[in-house]
Specification:
Elements (H helix, E strand, L loop, with lengths): L2 H10 L3 H5 L3 H12 L5 H8 L5 E7 L4 H15 L4 E7 L4 H6 L10 E6 L4 E6 L3 H10 L14 H24 L1 H7 L2
Parallel strand pairs: 1-2
Antiparallel strand pairs: 1-3, 3-4
Amino acid sequence: MNATYLKSKHDAGLDYESYLATDPDKGDNWRTIGAQVTLSDSQRALIEGFVREMKVLVVSGIWCGDCVQQGPLLQRIAEANPVIDQKWIDRDEHADLAEQIKINQGLRVPVAIFMAEDYEPVSIMGDRTLTRYRAIAAKQLGASCPLPGAPVPTEELEATLQDWLDEFERVQLLLRLSGRLREKHGD
């Protein structure tokens, strides 16, 4: 995946509310989870301290239980600082990209592609954070996906939010410490 290709995909992406509007009935499940999620003061301060622009492309499925449970967390992080330019695309509508970001040979969602301001790839994270995998493993070790709209314990949401925030912070630090970007920005 090169920067030109990733830019074209990011440009084709939707903002969060437009993405949810693609299926209003399923979008309500996302909003229910989103209403349960708030950033702590320290989390908000961390994100507000980001200075390097990052592009984030979330490959998702509005129908997916894991996306319902994690998508609103990604959105809450992105809302906290305008240097995070996050867009959403449907995995099935962008099968060419989905094929390139398979995880363990599977078409997984959600997958977040983190890029520098010039769309150079920096990191890919998905389909579940460690907290999500631990929670699912504790319930069952089968291949089933959680049902969209199923209740999620508050402590699991908080821990999953922190997992995602840790990756956003890691990417921000990678961008801040990048020799090429430090030279470009004179910092």
